[in-house]
Design brief:
With 145 residues, this protein is mainly α. The protein has 5 helices and 2 strands. A hairpin with a 5-residue loop joins β1 and β2.
């Protein structure tokens, strides 16, 4: 019995796609590559999702440090947590809920955002740890004291 509007039975009665178009209604979605459990099925739920819990723990610690007036260290820790997520997404075969999109897209997203946060934290005023010379020329309209 054929239930899909775009499939038709072949000579053996097995439904085959009659067209290359995708169906209008999606009935399920594929799990991202590497989206399997990071620990065996019999492990407790937190152990099965340890990669995302590690990233979230470091982000939470970074937010706490930021709230406790250690802005630069807190934001650097947040960026390093995202960079660690990118490394885990690259190195581990299964990362559980840390896998959102394809492996390549996740690595690029986590890596670029983590690097941007770390660089911006290092350039934060006052007394930046990292100075980029061309930014002074770009921002020549700012007031200096």
């Amino acid at each position: 019995m054929v239930t899909d509007a775009v499939s038709a039975p072949d000579a053996d009665g097995v439904p085959r796609r009659a067209t290359r178009r995708f169906p209008r209604i999606t009935r399920d979605t594929a799990r991202p590559e590497g989206g399997g459990r990071a620990a065996p099925r019999d492990a407790p739920a937190p152990a099965r999702q340890w990669p995302i819990l590690a990233v979230l723990a470091f982000v939470g610690l970074g937010l706490l440090l930021t709230a406790l007036d250690a802005f630069r260290f807190g934001t650097i820790l947040i960026g390093v947590a995202l960079l660690g997520g990118a490394v885990m997404r690259w190195a581990l075969p299964d990362v559980g809920m840390l896998a959102v999109r394809s492996r390549f897209t996740d690595m690029i997203t986590y890596g670029v955002l983590g690097l941007a946060i770390v660089l911006l934290a290092m350039m934060a005023q006052p007394h930046p740890w990292l100075e980029i010379p061309f930014l002074d020329d770009t921002l020549h309209f700012t007031v200096r004291t």
